[in-house]
Design goal:
Elements (H helix, E strand, L loop, with lengths): L1 H20 L14 E5 L9 E6 L1 H13 L5 E7 L6 H11 L6 E4 L10 H18 L4 E5 L10 E3 L3 E3 L1 H17 L3 E3 L1 H5 L14 H18 L3
Parallel strand pairs: 2-3, 2-4, 4-5, 5-8
Antiparallel strand pairs: 1-3, 6-7
Helix pairs in contact: 2-7, 3-4, 4-5
Length: about 230
Amino acid sequence: MKNLLLPFYLVASLASTVAVAQPNPAAPARESIEWCDIWISHANETNLPRVLLIGDSIARDYYSEVEKRLAGKAFVARLATSRFVADPVLLKEIELVLDQAKFDVIHFNNGMHGWQHSEAEYRNALPKFTKTIRAHAPKATLIWATTTPLRDGQGVTYDTKAEYSDERITARNAMAAEIMSAQKIQTVDLNAAVRGHPEFHSDNVHFNGQGSQILAAQVCALVEKSLPR
């Protein structure tokens, strides 16, 4: 009996190997480094409302200033990630955080990643992005943040494959504006707050202390108005 079963196991193993080896045309393009940074402060306290910032390294940079400005008014957490809006891993990261804690306000953005994907892919993925947040935080107030501009504004080779520029950022912000407006999601225009001010940048993408404070002030102005009374 063992000899009769051996060919079946062998065929099954080969089939599995072939299946794994086949490329998945639907898989999102990956960057050379993918990362995720989750930080939830005061996790065991319930006496203040909770705010979650979803974004990338730019949100991670202004997070501490947002937390400082909202001290005594709300506990602020962050989910900073390199994942593109169409990446199913991003949705899993969101689910992981939202299933572990209740948030009253969620401020989110999809910033400076995913330039290997087209603007059409970006537009098509945004509704699923917002749907995932709402499904796992149905009572939270949502605030969308526009993607910030570049210091130089010119196209830059990204991860040796794709190019990002202020032109593409503007196009994606316009697409997001249509979708957020249709879904009645508030927007804070971080792009406008720092556009035309290269002195706020620490490099072509990120912001220095002054720039981060300006972004944090914009975030807090709308978040604070959205906190439960």
